[in-house]
Write a structure and sequence with these properties.
The chain has 534 residues and is an alpha+beta fold. Helix content is 43%, strand content 14%.
Length: 534
């Protein structure tokens, strides 16, 4: 076959890819919201490579282009087989993995499909079986947003990110000119104009006109610069506007809505909270607060906890660490063993779906851009380990699990995070103890993994961060003894920078705790978990 004929066939295949992809619906999206499920993508990719290698050996003379594509993928996924978690612990590797399944693998499939030889059957059979689970373009966009989020939160240098460097760690494959352009374009669409300008300038610095048109880059760069200038002007007007003139403020800020869509901020996530959240994630404390923390930490205690000689804890007391006195936050160490954690994750993984947030006005769960993770729910009756964990929580806290919610297991995605929020519904009359349904009196948060960088749980009022320690659990009360919500417990999950984050939540309801949690002698009684034993 002549080179001209081969080239013609390849262009025909490329055209078919565009047409077929336009009408192909992939059932399972949202890969960017859970790193845990991305482990399946790594294994799928390695199996696809093994199948593809057999095809290449028998058809090497006709499939030189397929071989080049396969070699590029192989270089990008090197070392993934030996340590999947380390491979997925780097956000750039995560981004490239998602993108390969939306670009290169579809191209390879169409090239193989066009061949008339029988050796393609095994590869195509496996490919068609897995294709419905491939990431989609929205996953590539979600991954790009995650990189921007990490850059914004942790003040990462965009040049290091472009070279794939995150906290000194390098990925298997650096970001290409096209990757930099797509991230910059996404930044512009997300109104992150400063980041848009940085990424577009990086594209110009690399200067590959054959890949990205300079005119297209300049068009985006100009638009972002104009938007940034307009934003700066708007901020200056707000600073100089008469704060008593509500009309002016409403015109500048827009009318406030009473219902939060998935693209908007959670109720407690105003600009002040947003900046504090980022500072806490970076461990960026001002000197006066550091001085206060050192003073408070001198009086914090660690002990072996029996909870007044509870039968479950007499022979093996729990390791308790006091984290903060008011609001009272404690950590229990070694709540779950590695074997139990592996078991819980194995049950949860096939059930993971994009995590939702509770809309305080409609009462309905909804997706939100300020919570990037996937979660699954487990009931006590369906597994002995889950049931045992509930019994353990009851022993440690002294609270009844009869009305507690099912165990929620969550896995955070690329740059996964959860913006500042309360675990109780701040719109309800929580002091009405007659109707005590749907009142989360306390939270028991279990860490199912260590996280190398990022992923800290931060509490905005005391201004402290709690880093994930595998097998440990943080416990606090959401309600005062009076039944009122404790806004000092507003907390957030920092974006995962490198590593993989798994957690499990047990939200404990106020109902059935009447005889278990003592009421304060005064209505202003502090939100103590228990008086620390000497």
């Amino acid at each position: 076959m002549s080179n001209f004929s081969q080239e013609k066939q390849l262009w025909t295949m490329f055209y078919l890819i565009i047409v077929v992809t336009s009408f192909t619906s992939i059932c399972q999206g949202e890969w960017f919201s859970s790193v845990g499920q991305m482990e399946d993508l790594v294994h799928d990719e390695l199996k696809l490579l093994a199948s593809l290698d057999k095809y290449i050996i028998s058809e090497r003379d006709k499939l030189s282009r397929v071989e080049r594509l396969a070699e590029n993928i192989r270089k990008a996924s090197v070392h993934a087989d030996s340590d999947v978690e380390t491979y997925l612990g780097h956000p750039i590797n995560q981004y490239h993995l998602v993108k390969r399944f939306t670009k290169q693998w579809l191209l390879i499939n169409d090239l193989v499909e066009d061949d008339s030889f029988s050796t393609k059957k095994d590869f195509l059979k496996y490919f068609s079986k897995k294709r419905k689970r491939f990431p989609k373009e929205e996953d590539v966009t979600g991954s790009a947003k995650a990189i921007i989020r990490l850059q914004n939160t942790y003040r990462l240098d965009f040049r290091d990110l472009a070279d794939g460097i995150v906290k000194g760690a390098r990925p298997n494959q650096n970001l290409s000119v096209v990757d930099c352009f797509e991230i910059g374009r996404t930044a512009g669409l997300e109104k992150k104009d400063g980041h848009c300008i940085s990424w577009m300038n990086e594209v110009l610095r690399r200067g590959d006109e054959q890949v990205i048109s300079g005119l297209e880059v300049f068009d985006h760069l100009k638009r972002c610069k104009v938007e940034k200038q307009l934003m700066n002007t708007r901020v200056n007007i707000l600073k100089t506007a008469d704060h008593k003139d509500n009309t002016t403020k409403h015109q500048l800020n827009g009318d406030k809505k009473t219902n939060y869509s998935e693209d908007e901020k959670p109720p407690v996530f105003d600009d002040k909270a947003k900046q504090l959240f980022k500072r806490l994630c970076r461990n960026d404390y001002n000197p006066s607060h550091l001085k206060k923390m050192k003073k408070v930490q001198k009086d914090l205690k660690c002990m072996y906890w029996t909870n007044n000689n509870h039968p479950f804890l007499v022979l093996q007391p729990a390791k308790l660490e006091e984290l903060w006195p008011s609001p009272h936050l404690v950590r229990f160490h070694d709540v779950l063993s590695d074997r139990e954690i592996t078991h819980i994750k194995s049950i949860a993984k096939p059930r993971l779906h994009r995590s939702q947030v509770h809309n305080v006005f409609t009462g309905v769960g909804q997706l939100a851009n300020y919570r990037i993770s996937k979660s699954a729910w487990m009931e006590d009756w369906e597994d002995t380990v889950v049931e045992s964990l509930s019994e353990r929580i009851s022993a440690l806290t002294g609270l009844s699990m009869a009305t507690a919610e099912d165990l929620q297991v969550a896995n955070y995605g690329i740059g996964g995070y959860y913006a500042p929020h309360c675990d109780f519904d701040e719109t309800k009359d929580l002091t009405n103890m007659i109707d005590s349904d749907d009142k989360r009196i306390a939270t028991f948060l279990v860490y199912l993994s260590d996280v190398k960088h990022g992923g800290t749980t931060v509490f905005l009022e005391p201004k402290i961060g709690v880093r994930p320690i595998k097998g440990s659990a943080v416990f606090w009360y959401n309600l005062y003894p009076s039944g009122e919500g404790d806004l000092r417990t507003v907390h957030a999950a920092c974006p995962v920078l490198t590593g993989v984050k798994w957690i499990a939540n047990k939200w404990i309801q106020a109902k059935d705790q009447e005889l278990r949690r003592k009421c304060g002698k005064e209505i202003t009684a502090d939100n103590r978990i228990f008086e620390m034993q000497p």
